[in-house]
Design goal:
This protein has about 220 residues and is of the alpha/beta class. Strand 4, helix 2 and strand 5 form a beta-alpha-beta unit. Bound molecules: S-adenosylmethionine (SAM). S-adenosylmethionine binds next to helix 2.
Length: about 220
């Protein structure tokens, strides 16, 4: 899966990774940083923080760690964040260090990256922010692997596109997430594919489609009523 991985600049001065075997990038070519901030922070974390200062977050697809670094930036010691991130294909620290060198402006918390990568056991990354990296696929995830019990308030669903990775977008994966989420729990993703949205509604989510990043017509916000 990770063979011949390439670093590519994106239009906002940040960078993404390209997998030639999958013909897929980790982020939008228009901007990795801008897309991550828009989808996961602006439409995910910030609205949840306006409801509660204590949150449990699950990310599907740690990848470059960009969403976690931006989540650190958007929170402070006033918050109590318990974040778990799933990643079956972990990238090496040297590759990621080289990746972030391609950013015109590196994320403020980049120095936390080595600790994030070594967080199979929960680590406190900064005051008010605990983190666990789970080396598992969503399809195989069991509750016993998750350090934080209790319902999940926010899901960052950042897997590769449904056309590239259909197994992660099967309805059973979203049923599993729905069951583990809190009342008013929120799932956000860059994807707004029709079949995916129909699955979310079928399970019982309320589905909203605000504009996506960089003029993309839609992204998806799903709320568990
Ligand atoms: C679109 S990339 C985004 C990653 C990350 N959020 C970022 O900003 O770099 C998708 C990520 O999902 C991971 N992934 C692949 N299969 C997965 C699975 N079955 N369950 C969870 N994550 C998976 C990939 O290895 C990759 O890191």
């Amino acid at each position: 899966m990770l063979q011949d991985i390439q670093i590519q600049g994106t239009e906002d001065g940040s960078a993404t990774l390209y997998l030639p075997g999958l013909l897929e990038t980790y982020h939008s070519n228009k901007g990795a940083l801008g897309e991550s901030w828009h989808v996961y922070i602006q439409n995910g974390l910030l609205p949840k923080l306006s409801e509660a200062s204590s949150l449990t977050i699950l990310e599907v697809g740690f990848g470059t760690g960009l969403n976690v670094l931006l989540s650190l930036e958007a929170t402070s010691e006033q918050h109590s964040i318990r974040m778990m991130s799933l990643e079956p294909y972990l990238l090496s620290l040297p590759l990621l260090a080289s990746y972030y060198q391609h950013f015109e402006q590196v994320p403020k918390h980049l120095s936390c990256l080595p600790t994030l990568l070594a967080s199979e056991q929960v680590q406190t990354i900064q005051a008010g922010f605990q983190f666990q990296l789970i080396p598992s696929k969503l399809e195989d995830l069991s509750k016993t692997q998750m350090a934080f019990d209790g319902p999940i308030d926010l899901v960052y669903f950042d897997a590769f596109a449904p056309s590239k990775q259909p197994e992660v977008w099967q309805i059973d994966c979203f049923k599993k997430l729905y069951e583990s989420m809190a009342h008013k729990g929120r799932l956000v993703t860059y994807c707004a594919q029709g079949q995916f949205k129909r699955h979310l509604k079928q399970i019982g989510f309320e589905v909203y489609n605000p504009p996506g990043a960089f003029g993309k017509r839609e992204m998806t916000v799903a709320i568990k009523p």
